[in-house]
Amino acid sequence: WEFDATQTAMKWDQQMFKIHGLKSEAAPDVNVYDLWLNHIDPSYRQSVLSQLNLSLEQSRSFKSEWVSTTGRIIKSFGLVTHKEQDNIPLLVGVDFDITEQRNQELKIKNSLEEKETLLKEVYHRVKNNLQVITSLFNLQSSTLPDGDSKSVIAEASSRIFSMSLVHEKLYRSKDLSSIQLNE
User: Fold this and answer.
1) With 151 labelled, which of 22, 45, 113, 129 sits at a CA distance of 20 to 30 A?
2) What DSSP string runs through 68-133?
3) Which residue from 87, 85, 168 is spatially nearest to 123, judged by alpha carbons?
4) CB neighbours of 74 closer than 8 A, spacing ≥ 6?
5) For position 183, what pLDDT does the model report?
């Protein structure tokens, strides 16, 4: 696309119509500025126009992400150039339809949240089971007379407690590739 701010004129090639999901009823050399402006969801329109004007005023690149009225997510990039004959700023750019990419990102994010919830549930179940086993050992130990049996159960209880500490360390760790278990 090409935008001339002095004439508030915009030109698109045929690919732009496809990206935006619009019919190319107008020839590519017809001003499609109003079509483009009305195609931007109203909640994004002011922001996109502000970025566009700022790019032209400061002769810097244009970058914007917005949602169209058809629900497509569009990413726009543009560079300021000048018409050779009269040094009038002209913004030349390209748009990308990133709707599918964003939908995939959302699916991955939701899947990750589900997995994190499941992992937390598994953690709590394991933790509860380890506590139940430790409690059962302690209960059994209290009914035994001092001797080898009692020391074996105390040792087993101690091992289960150590496993629960390692389990706790795993749960609290941000990076599972290296966990210090010296403690």
Assistant:
1) 129
2) BTTS-EEEEEEEEEE-TTT--EEEEEEEEE-HHHHHHHHHHHHHHHHHHHHHHHHHHHHHHHHHHH
3) 168
4) 19, 20, 65, 66, 67, 68, 95, 96, 97, 98
5) 61
Tokens 């001003």 label which residue?
Answer: 31
> Mean pLDDT over residues 173-178, rounded?
74
In this structure, what token pair is assigned to residue 62? 């244009």
CB 20 within 8 A of CB 68: yes
CA dihedral 133→134→137→143, nearest 10 degrees, is -130
* pLDDT tens, residue by residue, 15-68: 888 888 777 765 555 678 888 898 899 999 999 999 999 998 888 999 999 999
Q: Which residue is it, tokens 């941000």?
A: 174
Q: How far apart are CA 129 and CA 34, in angstroms?
A: 65
What pLDDT is attached to residue 90?
87
Query: 96 has which bridge partners?
Result: 75
The answer, yes or no, to whether residue 102 has pLDDT greater than 80, is: yes
Per-residue confidence (pLDDT) for residue 87, from 0 to 100: 73
Phi, psi of 26 (to 5 degrees): -95, 150
DSSP state for residue 64 in the 8-state scheme = E
How many CA atoms lie within 13 Å of 164's alpha carbon, on the beta-carbon side? 18
